[in-house]
Each structure stands twice: as C-alpha cells, then as structure tokens.
Amino acid sequence: MKLAIAGKGGVGKTTLAGLLARSYAEDGNRVVAIDADPDANLASSLGISPQQVANIEPISRMKELAKERTGASEGYGSLFILNPKVDDLPERFFVEHKGVLLLVMGTVDQGGSGCVCPEHTLVRALMKHLLLDRNDVVILDMEAGIEHLGRATAESVDVLIVMVEAGQRSLQTAAHIEKLAAEIGIPRVAYVASKIQSKADREFIERALPKKQLLGTISMHEQIREADRLNLSPYDIGGNFLEEVVGIKRRVQEFIVEQAGISQEKASECRQENS
C-alpha cells in the first residue's frame, strides 16, 4: 500500500498521515512514513519526542551526502550521476517509533521543481526506491505541490489522498493538485474532508466532491487540538476520530478495488488465496 497525502497548508493532512501510519502499524504492517513537507511536522503527529525531532536532519539538506552519492564536483554546471546508490540510506536515517519508520525527506530549497542538482537527484532517487523497490506500507506526507513524484514513481502510488476543508479555497487547491496528478500519471485521486463541524459542512463537501472519490471525513475533535497543544500524537490520546480513520482505511481498499475494475467477490477470493 502506497499512499500520498497532499492538500492546502493547515488542512490536516499531516494529522491524517500520522493517524494512518500508526493505525497500519498497529495492524501489524511494516510502515514507512515519509515527511516531504517543508514544515516537517509528521514526527510530532506520530508521537516522536521533541528531543528526537530536534536531532533529525532532512535528507534534502545533506549536501555532502548528495555530492558523495552523485559524484558531483564544485561549481555550476558540474556533471553528476542521476541514479545514485540509495538502497542503504533508509536504514541509516530512519527514526523508529511505535512500529513506524519515519524518514524526513524535506524539500530542496533552490530551483523549485525544476532543480536538477545533487540534492534533488538524491531525494528523487530515494523516493523512487521507497515506492518501487520495498514491500512496505508507505505513507507520504506532501506539500500542496507534488514535485517529489516524477513519472517514474507516480504509477506506484496506489492513491493520492487530497485533504480538503469545507471551503472554496481548499477545493480550488484540491482541483489544482488533481490536475498535477493527472499530468504525471497518478492513477487514483481521492479526497478526505477534515475539520467537519456541522451538518452544513458535511452537506457542502458531499455536494462539491464526487461520491466515489470521497473516502471519508475527520470531524473537528477537541482531542486532536489537545494533542497539538501538548505536542503529542492524537493516536495516543485517542477519541472517536480513530473510528473515522478505520473507516477511511477500509474505504481506501474498496476504492482501489473499484478503480481497478475488480469485483468485490474476486477481490475476496484473492485475499483468501493469499492467506
């Protein structure tokens, strides 16, 4: 299972990424959580202590490592390899917590999405390795853009989950993300609505989004806000929202099956054969 989560800043995508990662890990899966957001708050959402967080350096800032692996030399326009060795890096830089392996990828500061530099090359190669070469549940917490995902890795994402709120600006960002996803070939895009506070919010979301693509909602819960104030994981505090997360996980599986054109009966037979 490879899930990427994107959305407008502050919409709750990092909270959902942390909750899904912890929930999949509790089910007994080997889970890799990738923080590819410049704000890099996924560690806190997973419940990793502030002391550990302070010692985490994003891969994108490891300039010397990037030079070493790509063979880059000093100076503008220097040549370097575009497929550096990265398969040993996850185990070197993972931070493990409650069965979740966190890797803080970060973003390359200069050059934007068009940057072809050693750091960007290293990040893209590592992302490709994590998505294509490993048999893990991968939860990818992204910024509103999806620049980390190139055409070589886009098809490996089972679902791009776009987080939205009950508001037009959030939906406009979501439409932009879905357009980018189509351009690079991400096969399945779905939505989760967060911070739902009323019947009016729920009705707004149900009118605005296709029913087949709506995976579920996360209501506005005081426990989630309390976890943020205490710098704890909402998963550890607990609340009714955990039931909503379980429902989203179930709906993700159904959505993949539906989009693949496989009947529920055939999917059930496959699961029985695999077990």
Return the CATH topology.
Answer: Rossmann fold
Distance between the termini: 17 Å
| β-sheet strand percentage | 15-25%
Please write the CATH class name.
Answer: Alpha Beta
What is the domain tally? 1
Contiguous uncertain segments of 5+ residues? 110-114
Q: What spatial order of strands do you see in the largest sheet? A: 3-4-2-5-1-6-7-8
| Superfamily (CATH H level) name | P-loop containing nucleotide triphosphate hydrolases
Mind describing the biggest β-sheet?
8 strands, mixed
Describe this structure in words.
- This protein is of the alpha/beta class and 275 residues long.
- The protein has a single domain, classed as P-loop containing nucleotide triphosphate hydrolases (Rossmann fold).
- It has 13 helices and eight strands.
- The chain has an eight-stranded mixed sheet with strand order 3-4-2-5-1-6-7-8, with helices on both faces.
- Strand 3 (95-97) and strand 4 (100-104) form a beta hairpin.
- Helix 1 (13-26) crosses helix 12 and helix 4 (63-70) crosses helix 6 (118-132).
- It starts with a strand and ends with a helix.
- The model is unreliable at 110-114 (pLDDT under 50).
